[in-house]
Amino acid sequence: MEGRSTWARALDKTRRSAFGRVVSLLGGSEISSSSWDQVEESLLEADLGPHLARKISTQLKKTIQEEGLLRREDLRRSLQDLLLQGMPPTKEWEPVTLPTIVLLVGVNGSGKTTTVAKLAWHWKQRGKKVLLAAADTYRAAARDQLEVWAERVGEEVISGRPGTDPAAVAHDSAVAALARGVDLLLVDTAGRLHTRYNLMEELKKIRRVLGKVVAGAPQETWLVVDATTGQNGLAQAHAFQEAVGVSGAILAKLDGSARGGVAFAIQSELKIPIRYVGLGEGLEDLQPFASELFVEGLLEPQAAIS
């Protein structure tokens, strides 16, 4: 199945650095107390976080002892089941209202602008009319980058001059989305440190302005997290959630990360769904998150990937 192999290849770094080691530790003739310590350490290295790593390790040990599991495949399946317990069944999100407005937020360098373009491509391929808003008015390069991406995707961008109030660009984009009968408006915002109060207040202003133009907007606020940052991404998620009520997360650069376990931590601690993951650099490489493919990819035997 091509989907499985694509996910497995993208998750290669996390699998090799952590989950593959866990499976190997479980494959010995006798699992010692030191082996269980190493299992927990490996889960920590994958950035599940201390609480979740300990919980998975403890539950796995209990299952193995109670059921007398010895075969590596049985052990792998038991670990897979435990990991999936913390991942609610996934169903791809779809825009419902017209227009549906999605606000994209995140710190500098998270891959937000590229992700916006990939989302536009994804939904254009599904027959939706998409409009982009370049509400990062601090960097002319950000607007230019989004316009280059939009040209490749074949969709329009609403933007303003450098220094324009980002909320004004958000307002104009929402008005345009209504006038043009757009299905989906994607609002790119400036990367910001999650510890900067004034920048968070600016995001709140953007949300208020959008809601004045379209009732209930933005219907979604998605945090773009660079998966290579691991637990730092979780700290960002906490801060943005508190400030602007994040409704979902996107894990960018998952294919380049050895810390893909942060996906479990985000869902376990914040109870927000992961909507999409970046599995490569191409427009088509932003994929709807699929919990089963994600977990299978982390535990896939190497022979099945080649």
Describe the structure.
It contains 13 helices and 8 strands. It is α/β, with parallel strands linked by helices and 306 residues long. It folds into 2 domains: 2-89 and 298-305, SRP54, nucleotide-binding domain (Four Helix Bundle (Hemerythrin (Met), subunit A), Up-down Bundle); 100-289, P-loop containing nucleotide triphosphate hydrolases (Rossmann fold). It has an 8-stranded mixed β-sheet with strand order 3-2-4-1-5-6-7-8, with helices on both faces. Helix 5 runs antiparallel to helix 12 (291-299) and helix 10 runs parallel beside helix 11 (262-270). It starts with a helix and ends with a helix.
Short recap of the structure:
This protein is an alpha/beta fold and 306 residues long. It is built from 13 helices and eight strands.
Question: How do the strands and helices of this protein lay out in sequence?
Answer:
Elements: H1 2-10, H2 12-26, H3 33-45, H4 50-67, H5 72-85, E1 100-105, H6 112-124, E2 130-135, H7 140-153, E3 156-158, H8 166-180, E4 184-189, H9 197-213, E5 220-226, H10 231-244, E6 248-252, H11 262-270, E7 274-278, E8 286-288, H12 291-299, H13 302-305
Helix pairs in contact: 1-12, 2-3, 3-4, 4-5, 5-12, 6-7, 8-9, 10-11
Question: What is the helix tally?
Answer: 13
Mean pLDDT: 88
SS class: alpha/beta
Report low-confidence residues grouped into runs of 5 or more: none
What level of helicity do the residues show? 40-55%
Major sheet attributes: 8 strands, mixed
* CATH architectural category of the largest domain: 3-Layer(aba) Sandwich
- Spatial strand sequence of the major β-sheet: 3-2-4-1-5-6-7-8
Quaternary state of this entry equals: single chain
User: In the CATH hierarchy, what is the superfamily of the largest domain?
Assistant: P-loop containing nucleotide triphosphate hydrolases
| Coarse morphology | elongated
Tell me the radius of gyration.
21 Å
What proportion of the residues form beta strands (DSSP E)? 5-15%
CATH topology of the largest domain: Rossmann fold
- Cα separation of the termini: 12 Å
Number of strands: 8
- What is the total number of structural domains? 2
CATH class of the largest domain: Alpha Beta
The sequence of SSEs as H and E is: HHHHHEHEHEHEHEHEHEEHH
